[in-house]
Amino acid sequence: MTEPGLVELASSLYQLRIPEGPAHLLNSYLWLGSDGVTLIDTGWPDSAALIERALAALDRRRADVVRIVLTHFHEDHAGSAAEITTWSRVEVVAGADDSAFVSGERRGPLPSLTVLERTIHAESAEPPHGPACRVDREVREGDVLDFAGGARVVSVPGHTPGSIALYLPDADALLTGDAVAEFNGEVILGVFDTDRVTAKLSLAKLVGTGAQIAGFGHGEAVLVDAGARIAAATDPFADVPERS
């Protein structure tokens, strides 16, 4: 029986919906490689059991997980990473400029919310960290990871300083983290950014991959012409300039 919320996006690439918590349509991703399973983001701190069930549905075990790639440090994406590292000899990969936030060595920056964002997300005095997790490999723009035909790191700062996306050549798929999202049928700029101007500039890097498929940190995947959909991304939560 397939785990509810587990969807095959391409050969070897699966999206797992993480239902717990308040986040909009939160996703983790699994790549089933010849060397083992790579997880891209791990959901909330209580998501490990769900990920284990998803592995079982795909005829895999906890010990098959060889790699975790974290798109950024927020608790809804890095929350279960520390627990999953106890399952097997797992390499943890994160963007160089988020690494210290993931490991707990430093406190990350707070999101700078727009007026509209504050209607759906309360202001907080504490950065949204997950449990501290070691980082074994820090990556930067253009680095290549040994799965999915050479997964290429795309640096997309703005949501957090060290946010990354991954382009998977074997699936012609782009996993964007929270740089982009799907919301009510639209592809939009990711919300709750630490630097909104930089986040908008990062979209061009994602478009440049020309990916056919896109899987977002939040929302439904795009399975056709994803690069063009990202190029046309809207910004529905932007501040509206005051009229003079």
Structure notes:
By secondary structure, this protein is of the alpha/beta class. It has a domain at about 5-165: Ribonuclease Z/Hydroxyacylglutathione hydrolase-like (Metallo-beta-lactamase, Chain A, 4-Layer Sandwich), CATH 3.60.15. It contains six helices and 14 strands. It has helices at about 50-55, 75-80, 80-85, 100-105, 195-205, 225-230, and strands at about 5-10, 15-20, 25-35, 35-40, 65-70, 90-95, 135-140, 145, 150-155, 165-170, 175, 180-185, 185-190, 215. Strand 12 (about 180-185) and strand 13 form a beta hairpin. The longest helix is centred in the C-terminal third of the chain and has 12 residues, at about 195-205. It is globular and about 50 Å long. The mean pLDDT is about 95.
